[in-house]
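@channel anyone free to eyeball this complex?
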Amino acid sequence: MIEKGRISNIQSAMLAITSLTIMGHLIVLTLVISHSKENGWIAAIIGTALGLIGIVAVTRLSQRFPGLTLIEILFRHFSWPGKIAAIVYLLYFFILTLLAVRLFGEAYKSILYETPLTAFIVIILLVSAYAVYLGLETIGRMNQIMLPILVVMAIVVAYLTMPNKDYSNLLPILGEGWMPVGAGALSVMGWFGEIVIMGMLLPYVQKPERLMKANLWVAALTLIFFLGPVTGPVAMFGATEAAKMTFPTFSEVRYIEAGEVLNRFDAIAVLFWTVGLLFRISIFYYGLCLGTAQALKLKTYRPLVLPFGWLIGAGSLWFAADYEEIQSFLFGVYAPLNITMGALLPVLLLLLSRLIQKLRKRKEVAEER
Amino acid sequence: MSRLANRLRGAVAAAISLLLVLPLAGCWSTTEINDLAIITVLGIDQNEHGEFQVSALVIRPSNISQGGLGSGFSGGGDNPSYVVAEAVGDTMFQAMQKLSSTLSKRMYWSHLQAIVLGRKAADEHSVTILDILMREQQFRKNIDVLVTKGKAVDIVKTKPHLEGSLGAEIHGIIKYSKHTATTIVQDISHFASSISSSGIDHITGEISSTADRGSSISEDGTKTPSLNITGSAAFKEGRLAGFLDRVETRGVLWIVGQVKTGSTKMSCPEGNGNGISLEITNARSSRIPKKTADGISMKVVVDIEAEIREIACDGFELNPDRMDQLNEQLENTIMDEMNHALKKAKEEWQSDVFQFGTTIYKKYPKEWKQLRASWREGEFRRMKVELEVRAQIKRAGLIHDSIRVDERR
Amino acid sequence: MPETRNRKDAAPHDAPGKELLDLFSSTEDLVTRSIRILGLEGRLIYLHEMINQTALTNIEQSLTDLAWMQPNESDESRQEHNKMDLLKAKLAGGTSLDEDGVDSLVDPILSGKTVLLFEELRQAFLLPTSDAEGRSIDEPVTDQVVRGPRDGFVELISKNLMLIRRRIKSPDLKVEYITLGKQTRTEIAIVYLKNIANEGIVEEVRKRLSRIEIDGILESNYIEQLIQDAPLSPFPTMAAAERPDRICASLLEGKVAIVTDGTPFVLTAPSVFVEFLHSNEDYYDGAMPASIIRWIRALGLLIATFLPAFYVAITTIHQDLLQTPLLIRIAGYREDLPYPVLVEAFFMQLTFELVREAGLRMPKAIGNAVTIVGTLVIGQAAVQAGLVGALMVIVVAVTALTTFILPNYGFIQVARYTSFPMLILAGLFGFMGIILGLMFILAHLCSLRSFGVPYLSPISPAHKDAWKDVFYRAPWWRMDMRNPESGIRNRRRSRTPIPHPPDPETEGPG
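replying in thread with the prediction:
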């Protein structure tokens, strides 16, 4: 174990919530609304239920091999296929990190469009690298302070936008049938697959026995936090328009006009995006560095922080030439990728580990005879 | 210890090099506040050649005299604090670009308070105009869009009276017009969602100069034109269908349920006077689609509470029977208004400003799919609408019976 | 001064007096006098300015008046021996030159004691003649309260310890002496309450102090800089105070105090972030006003750090967040100004820093007035000259004033100097830049520890009990548990139930 820090159960749950929620509000939201339109909330609920598969698998896996991160498990217990799988996972973390970085840049470019993308990438990576460098405990503590603030602000925003919302826009239920809902649900399930990054953090939690409960709470809370954004823009703008927006929550926030004083809440959206994406990037960045250090059997992951920073920055720039390519990635590859890495693989690993255990027991029994 | 020092050195070097590089590129997205051309009203017209004519009301911030921190804010005086810039282009974006070339500052749309569409522009180009309004980041979605019967340019050039800028004036008029319930004003996001929806047609307020409306504002003894937002413009499938006057607009408002407060006049029951005026204090309405043997019919139910504001009838006495009479009369008046609206929009134009289509979709999605195709080609017209009004006059102000001549001994 | 240590291999103290005088050679303030006590030849050696002349005279008087009560002893050596015993009894012990060596006499002389040396008998006595004068006890200049005690620490360690002991009259209050500084030989005292403080922290303090190797300790800040947790961090991890009541409050919370001779500033360790937003006055006021003042202070910290950056961000990048009339007005203000807002902000902040620093050196009568008024006047003039905007002056003045809300000087520095990078970040990236800067600082704070205690506790890691003293100040009858990080031994502070008027039925008057 390279990381000496420990985080409490609550902190780990909060980290998962922050990192999932922000991606949800930014990306998954457009996916779900454009697939399922006004029935997005149904898709969300179903998707969460499906996503639980991945969550349970990852938690169980972590509890089975206490103190070992995902990469360590793969390396030690699954011999050469495990090593390959581990490298695949590292690539996966890398891709998700640079996706988040690129999204940060794109999101801000829509407001500050003259600033070059590189500038945004540099600055978010600087702060992120600093946090990763300082370690898991630091990230956990920062999140513990910031998440309640964000939640309170979100509630305030939701309250302030209520007069503008017409919830009858959410009718009819299942007007187009189950297909659109299904597509949306799969996107949500894919989204939850990202929780596999927790496989890198869970070994450092103080009370591993209580992990299942904590992670179930994560799923529930993420769902609740998602219901707001998935119904809000539709209620406010109507399903068709909401589906066309690149950043529905941003448009929603800009709409607030609570009296003469509290106008123009763009700043709140900025706050959310910055803080949320910062944590998400930091967690995946951290997982990447830690995993690589564990794979290479280094003493500490710190020397990897800067080189990976460069790689992530460069990668996020080369990743896609324009926003259209990103859109096609999100609509095409994102969900299946996450479902594979976040649900299918962990389940597979879990079953395999059980199988291997059984085989080993049989071998022992046979040898005893 | 030396490793720490090295790290510190490295960090400082990195920080300095970054800081040195960044200013070289300039401070990208910053714009000094006084380099902004703050535009508060935008007018879009189509001229005779089919080109887009764009007019913008640009604020000229008056110079605060630099006489120290104690001096006051000097007002406009004869120096108007705004200018109107116009430009013409083949597309709207081109017109806007041309506009920026005449301005010495950078165009800044984020503080736009109203957009006025000229009649022709609203009729022929709503959809393309909407595209740029939705796409451009600086246009907030809650900016009100109004239509004028003539040219938007004339509206933009009107001098504001109570407020410093026309934008604020229009904004204020819109805000308080909600209390008179004579118009319905929608913003960009509603515009977009109604145009793209097959079950709604857009409707928004109509703005015009007061010269021909019977109210005016005088400044320095001379009557100057001011603005008035009354009545509305209805669209049909992206094109202008027509204009509704205030009575018809009120009818639409009743059906759509957007009456908050407003006033109505009824004639005297005995025909001896000018009439009784009431103020609506509370109104709720709902639209209920019903499935019947021959398709879908719509029932509109309106619930109102009102108060008497003026009694101009001779010898009128208030008592419970009279109240019942008045209630009935009120109900009929309102139904009349609604019928007027229905006649114009539903029968004449087939413009579904009442959101009937969407209402049907929300309850009977399958039936709607069948109706949709020919909704505006006859189905809408054919649909039966049942109106039901329930009115309750609650109070009559501070006095009961009105003042009469020679009442007392 | 020559090293005394390698003298040990020289011949064992044949002429200790000469040895001693050699050590102090070329110093003209060392005085040597002969004295005859009980028929024995002795020498008084002392540093002229360090002693209290009256005390020395009194002691001399009582010594020469010593009568030898047993004239019958014939044996000379026995006589001498008995005389020595008498002297030892009277002067409370003594130093045997054979055992302790001449070196042990150096420090006492330097501290103001007088050495009474009997060379042939190889005995030396230390006479307590240290000058205990010094500044009188008065309210400290840097830390004044409306309600509360008016005494403050002085430069003499003995008086300071007395001020502490007078307040905490408990045998559990332990004092440990250390001498630091090769040349200054400053006396340092570690003070703590044994039944409350965390022994691990005390041990850590001892360890770090013993690692100090420096020529001189002139101020407690030297010590702070040499033992602090994060020397590269701008945030202070130890607190210093000039008021005994503040130090005693810290001691009662389980902190360790370090008293340094020569300075009235006493250090306490460990110190966490929230502590620097607290003032002793909070505890002397009612709970409600104190809570509100705490919030105002926190707000002040935010304003002091972020207000200029905010202003720059709003006026240059996020203009859409302003109300239209305000926007128009600000645009009007800035119509003819030459410089962009960022440059103006920098300029004004810098000016204020210069004026403030200059104000510190000015004579007291003018000093304070110049700082604030001076900035405003300069600002006014700059506005009239058309260099900066009036609004900018207001922003900078408000920022400057709010920095003085913070009770801890180190924090004021931090707030001020952080505002500059924030300005740059705001100018480049707007709000996002400010938030990222804030996150950067937050990350730093989260990773900081003070003697093992996380800097942001009790907020994170969360200790709900201690929140009573963080976000608001609970009334004394509710403050029953200590912060677990420092007062780990003894969690319970008080058991007082909520105060109430006497119950008429059971307790009744009379």
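from a first look: Residues 32-61+79-216+224-244 of chain B form one domain.
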